[in-house]
Amino acid sequence: MRVNQTRERLAAGGTAFGCALQAYRSAEIPRTFAAAGFDYVFIDMEHGAYDLETVQDMIRSALEAGITPIVRVAELLYSLVARLLDSGAQGIILPRVEDKKILAEALSWLRFPPRGKRGYGVNATMIGYESHTFREIIEHQNLNTLSVVQFETVSAIQNADDLLSLPGLDVIMVGPADLSIALGIPGDFDNPRLIETVDGLIEKCKRYGVVPGIQTRSVAHAKFWASRGMRFVGAGAEHGLLLEKAREAVAALR
Asked: Is 26 helix (H, G, I), strand (E, B) or coil?
């Protein structure tokens, strides 16, 4: 069974870098990201218009290429989380969580009993057609599934201690776009208020043993936050990278 390489890197104290998939319905892009050296691909079902079959193809492509497929669900539904995990996703991103009780329930969906409530619907494609016992599969999946929770509202920041104290929470991921809007400074990612808020959250993550992360819109901001202690760092999305490189090419040609 496949090991979650991003989880391994984070567990060893390293920093994992990824890139989002939001617009282009191609299972070839995870292979491209893997060849480029990214640790994970962030498949976005909240703001991307992907259906489950498209995402399943992306997950398979990522696994075969050796890059960690992590999927953001559009809402907190067990049926979404379970089907994505059964399709081979090695991590789930839970968006817009502010309440401890709701988060505890959602986290329980990511792991099999006794650590959670995930139903056992394992299929052969999920484990690469290998033969294993129930116990082996449960232990492996529980260890190799990353739980990622987004912090993107003022309420989430205010409730950070309650949320971070929950067992089963591996990574938090700041959503700076929504957080900047919530703070009254929409799109001002260099604003001292935003930076101070996120710095405070990083310190709390360290106290609770949770990996701090962020999804940025540029390489410059990704490097900035990595230098300040973020260890799960997203640098833009596929459509932005393509446009940026295309503009560079055209400028050079003109």
From this structure: coil
CA separation for the pair 94, 253 (Å, rounded)? 43
Give the C-alpha separation, 74 to 80, whole Å.
Answer: 9
Domain residues for the domain of 64 are 5-253
Which CATH number goes with the domain that contains 182? 3.20.20.60
pTM of the model: 0.94
Q: Which residue has the tokens 């760092």?
A: 233
Average pLDDT of the residues in 151-174: 96
What is the count of structural domains for the chain? 1
Q: Radius of gyration (Cα) for the chain, nearest Å? A: 18
Nearest-5° Cα angle at 236, 11 to 13: 15
Helix (H, G, I), strand (E, B) or coil at 9: helix
Residue 169, Cα to own-chain centre: how many angstroms?
12
DSSP H/E element including 17: strand 16-21
CB 29 within 8 A of CB 245: no
- Higher-scoring residue by pLDDT: 126, 182: 182
How far, CA to CA in Å, does 153 sit from each of 16, 43, 65, 128, 160? 24, 21, 35, 39, 11
Q: Which amino acid is at 68?
A: T
Cis bond before residue 186 (omega within 30° of 0): no
Query: Which backbone phi and psi does 36 adopt, to 5 degrees?
Result: -75, -20
